Amino acid sequence: MFKVAVCDGISEKGIDILKNEKEIEVEIKTNVAKDILPKQLSDVDAIITRSATTINKEFLSYCSNLKVIGRAGVGVDNIDLNEASKKGIVVLNMPTGNTLAATEHTMTHILNCMRFMPNANYELKYKHIWNRKKWMGMELSGKTLGIIGMGRIGSRVAARAMSFGANIVVYDPYIKREKALSIGAEIVDNLNDLLKKADIITIHTPKTEETHNMITEKEIEKMKDGVILINCARGGLYKEEALYKGLESGKIRALGIDVFENEPQPNHPLHKFDNVFVTPHLGANTYESQIKVAEGIAKSVIDALKGRGYENAVNIAMPEEEVSEIGKQFLGLAERMGSFLSQYVKSFIKKIIIYTHGEIEHYNNSLSLFTSVGVLKNMVDEHINYVNAPYIAKERGIAISSEIYKDKTEFKNYMAIRAVYDDDKSIEIGGTVFEPNKARIVYMNGFDMEIELTGNIIVFQNIDKPGVIGMVGAILGKHGINIADFRLGRKEKLQEALSFIKTDEKVSDTLLEELLDIDGAIAVSRVKL
User: Fold this and answer.
1) pLDDT digit string (tens) for 350-378?
2) Distance between CA 417 and CA 355 in Å, rounded?
3) d(CA 96, CA 373)
4) Is 503 helix (H, G, I), strand (E, B) or coil?
5) SS3 24
6) How much is the average pLDDT of 305-309?
7) Is the pLDDT of residue 183 over 70?
8) Residue-level pLDDT at 524
9) Torsion on CA atoms 221, 227, 233, 236, rounded to nearest 10
10) In angstroms, rounded to a whole number, what is the distance separating the alpha carbons of residues 53 and 71?
11) Is 263 annotated in the active site?
């Protein structure tokens, strides 16, 4: 008999599934105070939660029998995944149940911003004022909707907006161009092109180092006067101070926002504007989506407890395979190298080839898996793990293969990863492990160097001539950025150099632009690992 505790409110449909399952005993803990809740869970095998319950290290210390945590929704920010993993607890989520709800919620915000319906409703209903002229609206038909992020929700918003007669322009460097073109949308390679063209902009990206505060005052300045902005994805994708200034100046006609940087947010400065339409994170709040999520997580928890499968596990261990200590070091390196590639390329990667030499040739399947996790976690708006990564890569049209490395190498064990992107451009990086906990990248596109793939890294390529590196240091110093490590590789025949510059903190877009303006600079990129 397995005991399952439901800690936050979910649809009765999900609870019914649990109650109707043989060998499952259900305990409803939704009314138990959160400070004493963990003390009542010492003998439960699984818990089902939403965002209201914080499951941290202290919480888990009381749950000595816990095997499964089911999150009825997408986000798992309220769960300490590392601690759960250490204790062998599988964490499951339900990422697809609210897709249609979030899509329709986005469309609601778009239409409210164009017609100001909440304002007209309030004035007529509560102030008893009949004023048609005041609430002159705009039609979505013929307008250009800019969609940043063409994943599960972004693509569905595009289809619905097109049915209204809107023109769609998409910015998402991590999708196949054909995905946007197949539905009649325009896809742009540069975010600035979308900013200049769109009458309405909605954002649907994961929240990462790269996308946090993706839209600032600088980006808003490039937009059309009277632009409409929508965010029903993640708080912090738009810089909230920049939104305030854009509304105050009149640059932004209206703002529809369901998510904030910090939540709950009952009294935000943005609330003062009549042309701001806010909702308290309601994207997934429909009866239908809550039923789907509750039923889905109940079935997943039952399957996990009975050993039938771990669908949507976000922390499940790699497939069982005998891996040596050196092999485990390379698995971690493979994931970091994959993450480096997707951040550096910032484009749709259509093919990844993993080359191995030495003892690690025996672990090609696992190395391919870990590489795909690293590549995908910066690209898609869902949690990537060692179960779903191959399926998501296939769904995205990314071909992943492995081969034995046939060139000469001085290293006993060596791994190279080649990524093919855009119009058959490619990049290859190589890495090795010198000793336990000393994994390093040692090669990139013909440049030899040695650096650990951790922290904030600037990758700077330049013509190899005097004064360039001095200018790099001067610019970093001007911005108050301290250099933690600096590694240089050179191609003497081509008279080019490649630098990996580790910094103590993330550098700004302005700093990167200044580096690119240096006489002799070829390319500059920013990576966070």
Assistant:
1) 999 999 999 999 999 889 999 999 999 88
2) 6
3) 19
4) strand
5) strand
6) 84
7) yes
8) 96
9) 30
10) 10
11) yes
What's the pLDDT score for residue 165?
Answer: 98
Structure confidence by residue, pLDDT tens digits, 56-101: 999 999 999 999 999 998 878 789 988 988 888 999 999 888 899 9
Planar angle of CA 480, 206, 275, nearest 5 degrees: 90
Let me know if 234 is a catalytic residue.
yes
Report which of 487, 486, 466 is spatially closest to residue 476, judged by C-alpha positions. 486
pTM of the model as a whole: 0.82
Reported as type and span, the H/E element at residue 57 is helix 57-61
Torsion 488-491-494-495 (CA) sign = positive
C-alpha closest to that of 300 among 152, 101, 91: 91
Identified catalytic residue from 105, 281, 336, 383: 281
Q: Which residue among the candidates 263, 288, 395, 505 is catalytic per the annotation?
A: 263
**φ, ψ for residue 385, nearest 5 deg:** -140, -175
In order of their start, the domains of the chain are 2-97+287-305 (3.40.50.720), 99-278 (3.40.50.720), 320-445 (3.30.1330.90), 454-529 (3.30.70.260)
Catalytic annotation, pick one of 71, 109, 234, 526: 234
Closest CA to 109 of 275, 264, 246, 252: 275
Bridge partners for 491 per DSSP: 496
pLDDT tier, 317 (very low <50, low <70, confident <90, very high otherwise): low
